[in-house]
Amino acid sequence: MAREKMQILICGGTSCSDKQSEALADNLKLELEANALENDIKVVRSGCFGLCNLGPVVKIVPGDVMYVKVTPDDAREIVSEHIMKGNKVERLLYKDPSGKTKSAEKELSVYKKQLRIVLRNCGIIDPENIEEAIAHDAYEALGKVLTEMKPLEVIKIIKDSGLRGRGGGGFPTGLKWEIAYKNKSDEKFVVCNADEGDPGAFMDRSVLEGDPHAILEAMAICGYSIEAHKGLIYIRAEYPLAVARLKTAISQAREYGLLGKDIMGTGFDFDIDIRYGAGAFVCGEETALIHSMEGMRGEPTVKPPFPAESGFMGKPTNVNNVETFACISPIILKGASWFSATGTEKSKGTKVFALAGKINNVGLIEVPMGTTLREVIFEIGGGIRKGKKFKAAQTGGPSGGCLTEKHLDTPIDFDNLTAAGSMMGSGGLIVMDEDDCMVSVAKFFLEFTVEESCGKCSPCRIGNKRLHELLEHITKGKGTLADLDRLKNMSYVIKDTSLCGLGQSSPNPVLSTLENFRDEYEAHVTVKKCPAGKCKDLMEYFIIAANCVGCTACARVCPVGAITGERKEPHFINPSICIKCGACMEKCKFDAIIIQ
Amino acid sequence: METIKVTIDNKTVEVPKGTTINKAARKLGIDIPVLCWMELHDLNIENKPAGCRICVVEVQGRRNLAPSCVTKCEEGMVVKTHTTRVLNARRTVMEFILSDHPKDCLICAKSGNCELQAMAHQLGIREIPGQEIAAMSTYRKDTSPSIIRDLDKCIMCRRCEMMCNTVQTVGALSAVNRGFMAAVAPAFEQNLEHSTCTYCGQCVAVCPTGALTEVDHTPEVLRALADPAKTVIVQTAPAVRAALGELFGMEPGTLVTGKMVTALRALGFDYVFDTDFAADLTIMEEGTELLDRLTRHLNGDKTARLPILTSCCPGWVNFFEEYFPDLKDVPSTAKSPQQMFGAVAKTYFADKIGISRKDLVVVSIMPCLAKKYECQREEFSVDNNRDVDFSISTRELAAFIKQANIDLNNLEEGQFDSPLGESTGAGVIFGATGGVIEAAVRTAYEVYTGKKLSRLDFTELRGFEGVRSATIDFDGLPLNIGIAHGLGNARKLLNDVRSGKSQFHAIEVMACPGGCIGGGGQPLHHGDSEILKARAAAIYKEDKNKPLRKSHENPFIIKLYEEFLGKPNSEKAHHLLHTKYFDKKKKIIVKQ
Amino acid sequence: MKKVKSPADLRKIKDEVRERMYSKEKIRVRVHMGTSGLASGAREIYDFLRLELEKRNIHASVISTGDMGYSHAEPTLEVTLPGKDPVVFGNVDKLKADDIIENYIKNGEYVDGILPANYRKIE
After folding, report:
1. Domain around B176
2. B91 in any annotated domain
3. Does the annotation count B332 as an active-site position?
C-alpha cells in the first residue's frame, strides 16, 4: 500500500447539538480547495468522539493528532500549518491542568464520558464462539475464584466493591449473596433475571446477545460463593436471539468443561438452565419471577420471606439482574477498589442507560454513576431532536418519575434519583421536549402499568385503572381542580398500600408530573387548554383575522364545512362543527390559522 | 415457646414468635378489619394472599403500610392501626374495590350475608368518588348444574381458589387474566361444567360476595307443590337440622329437627321423610358389601379389592371419577342415601300409596351443592323421570321458609312421617366426618362377630384432623379404618391405594372439611370454625338421644327388606340401590 | 473438543485465540447483529459483505457479533485493517458497504459515517 493518505476527521453531524462543526467542515474544505488539495486530502464528518466538553474536535491521520475546541476560524491555520507544513498547531492541542500537552486520541480517552464495563465485549466478540470470549478474559475470574478463593472471600470483594443491584432496587449485591450464603440448605439456586420488562430498556438483551459468557461465568461465581450448584436464567420468550445465543453459549461452556461437573478440574459443579417468561412486566419482581419459574401464575408474594430464605421451590435463591452479573468478573479480576473508584459515594461503578424519545442519539450508553443528566442528554445523547427545548426525562421506566431542567446537573445515582421523586429502575431514559404534554405522558405510562398489573392486590388492580381514567378525564377537558387532589391522594394510597414494587411505584409518573408541571395540569382543568397542544379535545383551530386574506382555500378544504367567510374577507372557524383534522392549517399559505 | 413484645396503638402485648400483627391486635381487643383473609383454625385452612389491602397498618420504620394479616410481629415493633394515614388508605382502597363492584345489593343472593357489604357498612362508605367515570370489569355469567359464577362480583380475595386448589386439590379455579380484568375462573375461562369441578361447593361456602352462589331450585319445588296432580315428598339430610336454625337467629349447634319437620309440612309437602332412613339402608348395603369383600379377601380371593371406599358423598364421587378413574372399582357400589331414598320412594313407596312414579315428586334438602348435580345424573333416572327430582340446599330451604311467612322459632316440634322417616342414631351421624364409618362399624361388627357391642361411641373415629386412622378390634380381626375429609386429604389416601401402599380395610371420605356439616349448601360460616364444631356436637347429641343407634335395628329397614328387597345385596337391592362409576377425566376444550 | 482442566488450560486457549484473532495480516469485519442491528437490516449487509469481498478477491473474515448500543445508527459494522485500530461505521446500507470496501478496506480512505469509540474501556 502506498504511503498513507492524509485525512481529516471532524466530530459531530446531524446528531450533534453543537452546530459549529458544520461551519468548520465547510471552512476546511474551502481552505483545501484554495490550496488545490481537495483531491488529495479528505474531510470526513464522523460521529461523536465522546469528548463533547472539548468539542468540536478534529482528528488528523496519520498521526492521530487531536485538536480540541476548534472554531471555524481555525481552519486556515490547520491547513496551512499542519497539512501543508506538517507542524502541529500547538494552541489547539489539549493541555492538561499541569500544562502538559496531549495530542493522541488515546491520551485523551480518559476525558470520555462513557466507560464500558458491562458492555465491554458487546460488538467486539463473536458471541457464538466461546474462544473469542475466552480471549477477552471470560472464565478467568471463575478460574481465579475456584482455585484461589473461599466463598466468603468472594462475597467480601463484591461487598467491598459497593456493587448494587442494577435491576431497579439497588440492593447491595454482596449483602444479598451473603444472606443467601448464610441460609444453609441442601439445595440453593442462582437465578439471573433477564425478564427486562421495562419498555425501552434493552441493555440486558444486548449483553445476552453480545456477551453471554459474561453472565454464565458470573452465575457460576455466584453459585460458588453461596454454595449453589444450579443456575436458572429467566428470560422472556420475546428475546429469541438472546435465547439462541445463550443456548449456544451454555452448550459450548459445557463442552469446554466451564459448566457442569468438576469445572476446570476443581471439583466444583455448576450448571445452568433457561426458563422462559411470557413477558409480563411484574415478573421482573423477584417473587413473581420465582412463581413464574415454578409454573405458577406470575404473581408476587409478600416479603419477607425473601428469596434468599425461601425462593425457587422453597430453597434459598439468589436473584440478580443481567447487568449486575455482567459487573462481577471485572470486579474479581481487578479488585473491589478498582470498581469502587468509579461512581459516587453510595453508587459505585457504571450504569447502562437506554436513551429513547426526543433525543438525537438513541441507543445504549454506559456511564459512571454520578454522571449528570445534562452530560447524558446533551453530550452523549447529542441533545434534543430538531433543536427543540428539553422539557423532561423519564427515568426508571413506566413506574419511574420525570426529571426536569432543575435536575439537569444532579449527578445520577440511586439515591439522587429517588430523592428527585424518580428512580434508577433498569435504566430506561426517555427524553421529552416542549411538544410533550405532561398529563398525556403520565397517562401514557399509567396505561402501561394498568395493562401490566397482575391484579392480585386491589390498589394496583383497580387504583391504577382509576388513576388512568381520571387522567383521561382531565385530558378531555372534563377535570376539575378537586380532581388534582384526588389524583394525588389516590397516588399516595396506591404507593402506600400495594403489594409489590409495581404498584408501589406505578403512580410515580403522576406524582412527579404533578409536582413539576402543576401549571400544566391546572391549565387542563381550569382554562381547559393543553399548553403543549397535544390533547385533541382541548385544541381549537382559530383564524387570525389580521393574517387572513380571504383566499377561501381553507373553507374549500374543510371536510365538514366548519369554515365560513366572504371572499377577500377574514374567515371564521365554527368550533362546534370543527373536527380538528388540521387540513385548513396545512392549506393556509398565510400562517393565519393557529391552534389554541 | 419464644415470645416477643409488640406495641399496638400504645398498648404492649407479648405474643408467641410468628404471630401476625392482626392476631396480636386481637389479643388487645383491637379489631383490625380483614376482607380477603380467612382462617378455619382447627382445619388448618388459611387464606392469606394479602391482596385486598384493607387490613393495612402503620409499622414504625417501614416505608409503606403493612398488611396486618400476614406481617409477623417483631420484637419491639410499634404499630398504629388508626392513624389518619391508615384510615385514609383503608377508605380509599375500599372505594377502589367498591368502584368495581355492582351495586345491585337489593337483589343479590348474598345480600345481608355479604362480607363486602358488611365492610362497606363498617367503614361508613357513603359515596364512591369518581364512580361516574369508573369502568367496571364485566364477565360472562356461568351457570352449571350446581353453581352460578357471576365474576362481576369477584373481589379477587382468592378464597375459592385456595379452597379449590390447596384444600380440595381439584384445580378447577385459578386466577385468570391480569390487571383490571383479573378474576378467578376455570382455565381458559371455560364454563365450570367443562372444568374439573366436583361441585363440592366449598368455593361458594367461602365466597365473601355474590360472585359464587348456588343454583336456586326452589321455584321448581314451589311449582310442584302447587300442582294438585302431584304428590310431593321431601327428605332431609342429617346435617341440615344442625345448621338451619342459624339462619333464623339461633345459636350454631341448635338442633331444629322437629321445627324443620313442621315447617316442611306447612310448606305443603305431602310427606316429610328423613334421609337418615336411607342412611340406615346405606349401612345395610355398604356394610354387607364390606363384609363380603373382607371375607373373600381373607379367604384369598384376589378379585376382592380392599380397601372399600364409602360412596355417599357426590363431590367425592365426582372427584375420583375425574382424578382416579383407574380405581373406579374400589369404592362401594352403594348409592348415596339421597339416591337410595329416591329409588325406594319411587318404587316401594309409590306402590304403597298407589300412585305412579310420574306423579310422585321427590325433593331433597341437602347441606350440599353436589347433590344437585347427583340427582341430575342420567343413571339415576327411569324413563327421564328422576329418582330425586330436585335438591335444594339448607340455605335455599331457609329462604323458602321465610318467603312462606313461617317463623321457624315459634313452631311446634313435628315428627317425621312413616315409614321413610324412621331412622336410628347411626343415620344421623352421617352428617359429620367419621360418621359414616362409625355407623358402618356399629352394624358390621355385630353382623360379623354375632356379638353385641358393649359401647357405641367410637370417639377414635371422630374429630377434625384431616386424615385420621383407627383400628377397631372385630373380635380378633383388627380392622384398619381410614378417614379423610376435604378432597386434598382424600387424594393422599387415594394415592396410597393406587400405589398399593394402603393398609386400610375401609376408608371414609367426605369432600367437605368437617363433613356434610361444613357442606357447600350450609349457612355460611364466614371462616369461623367454632360454628362447624357446634354443628358436629349437635349431630352427635341427636345420635345419643335416639332410642335405636344401629342401622340394622331400624324396624322399618327390617320391614323394607322383608316386604320388598329380600336381603342386603340381593339382586333387587343391587338393581335399585347400587350404581357404577365412570371415567370422567376431562379433556380440555378450548372455546374458539 | 478442548476440555479446560485448569486455569492454565484456559490461559493457553486465551493466548492462542488472541494470536489468531488479532493477527496483523488479517482484515476483520464484524457486523453488529443484535436485535437492533438485525431489525435495521444488518443481515443483508452481512450477506452482501461476505459475497462481495469474495467476489473482489479480498481476504477478510466477516463475523456477526452483538450490538454496541448505537441504535440511532444501525446497522453498524466494525472494520479492522491490519496494524490499525478498529473503525466503526454507522448507517450502513449496501451502497455504504460498497463504499467501505472500495475506499476503506482497499485504500484505507475514510468514508462518512464513522462512529469513533466515544467511550473508555476497562484497561
Report:
1. 99-214
2. no
3. yes
Helix (H, G, I), strand (E, B) or coil at C65: strand
Among B58, B214, B321, B374, which one carries the catalytic annotation?
Answer: B374
Put simply, whether A231 touches B (Cβ < 8 Å) is no
Give the integer Cα–Cα distance in Å for A334 and B299. 80
Between A and B, how many CB-CB pairs are < 8 A?
A: 113
Residue B171, all three cell numbers: 384445580
Signed CA dihedral, A117, A119, A123, A125: sign only: positive
- Put simply, whether C75 touches A (Cβ < 8 Å) is no
Tell me: do B69 and B147 sit in the same domain. no
CATH number of the domain to which B19 belongs:
3.10.20.740
Minimum distance, in Å, between the CA of residue C69 and any CA atom of chain A: 4
C with A: touching (≥3 Cβ pairs within 8 Å): yes
Please state which CATH number belongs to domain A130-336: 3.40.50.11540
3-state secondary structure A84-113: HHCCCCHHHCEECCCCCEECEHHHHHHHCC
Please state, as a whole number, how many other Cβ atoms lie within 10 Å of the Cβ of residue B396.
21
Question: What stretch of H or E contains A160?
Answer: helix A151-161
B36: left (phi over 0), alpha (psi -120 to 50) or beta: alpha
pTM: 0.91
Please tell us whether the domain made up of A438-527 is placed in CATH 1.20.1440.230.
Answer: yes
Contact flag for A and B (3+ C-beta pairs < 8 Å): yes
C121–A44 CB contact, under 8 Å: no
Q: Which CATH architecture has domain A7-111?
A: 3-Layer(aba) Sandwich (3.40)
Q: What is the ipTM of this complex?
A: 0.92
Q: Comparing C-alpha atoms, which of A545, A552, A530, A546 is closest to residue A596?
A: A530
Contact B100 A462 (CB under 8 A): yes
User: Are C69 and A257 in contact (CB < 8 Å)?
Assistant: no
Which of A5, A11, A258 is the closest to C4 by Cβ?
A: A258
- Single out the catalytic residue among B68, B144, B332, B391: B332
Per-residue pLDDT of chain B (592 residues; tens, 9 = 90+): 899 999 999 999 999 999 999 999 999 999 999 999 999 888 889 999 999 999 999 999 999 999 999 999 999 999 999 999 999 999 999 999 999 999 999 999 999 999 999 999 999 999 999 999 999 999 999 999 999 999 999 999 999 999 999 999 999 999 999 999 999 999 989 999 999 999 999 999 999 999 999 999 999 999 999 999 999 999 999 999 999 999 999 999 999 999 999 999 999 999 999 999 999 999 999 999 999 999 999 898 888 888 999 999 999 999 999 999 999 989 999 999 999 999 999 999 999 999 999 999 999 999 999 999 999 999 999 999 999 999 999 999 999 999 999 999 999 999 999 999 999 999 999 999 999 999 999 999 999 999 999 889 999 999 999 999 999 999 899 999 999 999 999 999 999 999 999 999 999 999 999 999 999 999 998 889 999 999 999 999 999 999 999 999 999 999 999 999 999 999 999 999 999 999 988 765 555 4
Cell of B566: 329380600
Helix ranges (DSSP H) in A498-550: 501-505, 508-516, 518-522
Taking CB atoms and an 8 Å cutoff, what residues of chain A touch B155?
458
DSSP label at A253?
Answer: H
Fold category of A350-381+388-432 in CATH: Ubiquitin-like (UB roll) (3.10.20)
* Cis geometry, peptide bond prior to residue B252 (ω within 30 degrees of 0): no
Looking at the structure, tell me whether residues B45 and B112 fall in a common domain: no
State whether residue B56 sits within 8 Å of chain A by CB.
yes
Instruction: Tell me which chain C residues have a C-beta less than 8 angstroms from the C-beta of A44.
Output: 110-112, 114
Whether C72 and A110 lie within 8 Å, measured CB to CB:
no
Architecture of the C26-115 domain: 3-Layer(aba) Sandwich (3.40)
* Total domain count, chain B: 3
Listed in sequence order, the residues at least 6 apart from A36 whose beta carbon sits closer than 8 Å to its beta carbon are: none
